[in-house]
Design brief:
single chain, Rossmann fold, 2 domains, 10 helices, binds guanine
């Protein structure tokens, strides 16, 4: 069994970008890439994610702005802020941390980000480009990170049976599309799918993103399965995934741990997307 080390893998990606960024700034005398992160309200989990994203920017030498907005900000004022950033030449990527307060139309807000700066890949334009395989867009960060891990560990998805558990716009749906693009046969399930275990047992590769602690057990999977766990749950003060790691690891050929698996790759993909946006602009 091989543990897929997302922490180490993401470190390499960030190091490469950091070196390249340094070279561009020092040798070509150009400005660094810039990322703006908008957070609305005081959601503690969002605050942690946003801090990690801006820290990663600092580490690779990017310029970053964190824009903290009041919980009660109007949709119009939020969109106005995004429109300013759309026109700001120091900013290559704009990210609005989700979830937003319920009264705000999330899709409307996301679609007000210029597609060329939508480094989260959530806008209609970028989702459309992803579905048809147009590489001029941005791939959303978590599934993109998973695709990089699979490729990096020489796990070929072409012709494989894949079950994705979870149907969110952030992970499940784009994950399925990216896998289909690479020739996998994909079934998208969710926590309420009938006979989920029966479906999982047929899968060569399983990606789980449902937010139910340790839901997938060894008895749900076949020998030699590749398991990608996107879940981040806090149980008794400790982090665990949607997969019962100790149990499933007995049967898996490859498995991602939580923490240290998919999580760090999400941030590495965000940094990568921001750098791609920057390079498209400066070259
Ligand atoms: N909330 C949970 N995951 C994400 C993400 O990848 N991007 C943003 N913007 N918000 C999130």
């Amino acid at each position: 069994m091989i543990i897929i080390d997302g922490k180490e893998f993401s470190k390499k990606i960030l190091e490469e970008i950091s070196n390249e960024q340094k070279e561009i700034v020092e040798r070509k005398n150009l400005r660094p890439a810039g990322l703006a992160v908008i957070i609305v309200g005081e959601n503690p989990a969002s605050q942690v994610y946003v801090r990690n994203k801006t820290r990663a920017c600092e580490k690779v030498g990017f310029y970053s702005e964190t824009i903290k907005l009041e919980e009660n900000i109007s949709e119009n004022d939020l969109i106005k802020k995004i429109e300013e950033l759309n026109e700001n030449d120091k900013i290559d990527g704009i990210l609005v941390q989700l979830p937003l307060p319920k009264r705000i139309d999330e899709l409307k807000v996301i679609n007000s980000i210029k597609p060329e700066k939508d480094v989260d890949g959530f806008s209609n334009v970028n989702v459309g480009k992803m579905v048809i395989g147009d590489e001029s867009g941005f791939l959303s960060c978590t599934p993109y990170g998973i695709m990089q891990l699979l490729e990096g560990y020489d796990i070929d998805v072409n012709g494989k049976d894949v079950v994705v558990v979870g149907r969110s716009n952030i992970v499940g749906k784009p994950m399925a599309m990216m896998l289909i693009q690479k020739g996998a046969t994909v079934q998208v399930c969710n926590s309420r799918t009938k006979d989920l275990s029966k479906k999982l047992k047929k899968a060569d590769i399983i990606v789980v993103a449902v937010g139910v602690p340790r839901m997938i057990k060894a008895t749900d999977v076949k020998e030699g399965v590749v398991v990608i766990d996107v879940g981040i749950n806090r149980v008794d003060g400790k982090l665990c995934g949607d997969v019962d790691y100790e149990d499933v690891a007995q049967k898996a050929s490859y498995i991602t741990p939580v923490p240290g698996g998919v999580g760090p790759m999400t941030i590495a993909s965000l940094i990568k997307n921001t750098f791609i946006s920057y390079q498209r602009k400066i070259y």
